[in-house]
Amino acid sequence: MFTKLKKSVGARTLKKQIRYANYKRRFHNFNTAKSIGVLYPYSRAVDSQVAKFMRFFAERHIKVRALGFLDAKELPASFIVTVNKTLFKQEHLNWYNRPSSNEINAFINTPFDILIDFSNEHIYPLQYIATLSRASMRVGRLAYPDNPYEFLLSMPTNADNQAYIDQLKHYLFSIQIK
Questions:
Q1: CA nearest 116: which of 83, 87, 148?
Q2: Residue 81's domain is classified under what CATH number?
Q3: What is the extent of the structural domain holding 151?
């Protein structure tokens, strides 16, 4: 019962905030993008793939910043916070799972050319950030209803993140901007 209440309040609050958001959307590809934000649910495997993906952008002189969500109370000892990559955890969520901290607010307000979400299921804190992001273009998987993305990739449910990355590279390099 309490879970339904949390979801209901979260959805209602997000809808209310969307009404007041007036963001300029513009399509980008990997050739026109100068900055990219990455959202992801933390696991060691996903973190490793995100780090590799970030190096791919750095080699192309594209600024990239990643924000991961760890559904736990403590950061894993193996995670190293860098200038470009950080995690937020349960303590950064309010009672209905709305994320809030200075880093999260700065990420939301950064006008990335492209925001890429690695979620393959509905994770409210990541949906909240993606929905309110000032990014020109938001990219994600067709994984849940009411997703906030301008560019969606339909992936099989058993597809791993490397397949997702390969599809992102394929489409976002081949699509021409006029």
A1: 148
A2: 3.40.50
A3: 2-174
Average pLDDT of adjacent 10-residue blocks, the chain of 178 residues: 70 68 82 96 92 94 96 81 89 90 95 95 92 94 84 87 94 86
Total number of domains constituting the chain: 1
What pLDDT score was predicted for residue 10?
Answer: 66
Q: Which amino acid is at 77?
A: A
Category of 134 on φ-ψ map: left (φ > 0), alpha (ψ -120 to 50) or beta: alpha
Contact (Cβ atoms closer than 8 angstroms) between residue 70 and residue 126: no
Report which DSSP code applies to 96: T
The tokens of 90 are what?
């349960």
CB 56 within 8 A of CB 141: no
What does pTM read for this prediction?
A: 0.89
What tokens does 109 get?
A: 């307000």
Contact assessment for residue 118 and residue 41, using Cβ atoms and an 8 Å cutoff: yes
**What one-letter code names the amino acid at 10?**
G
3-class SS of residue 28: coil
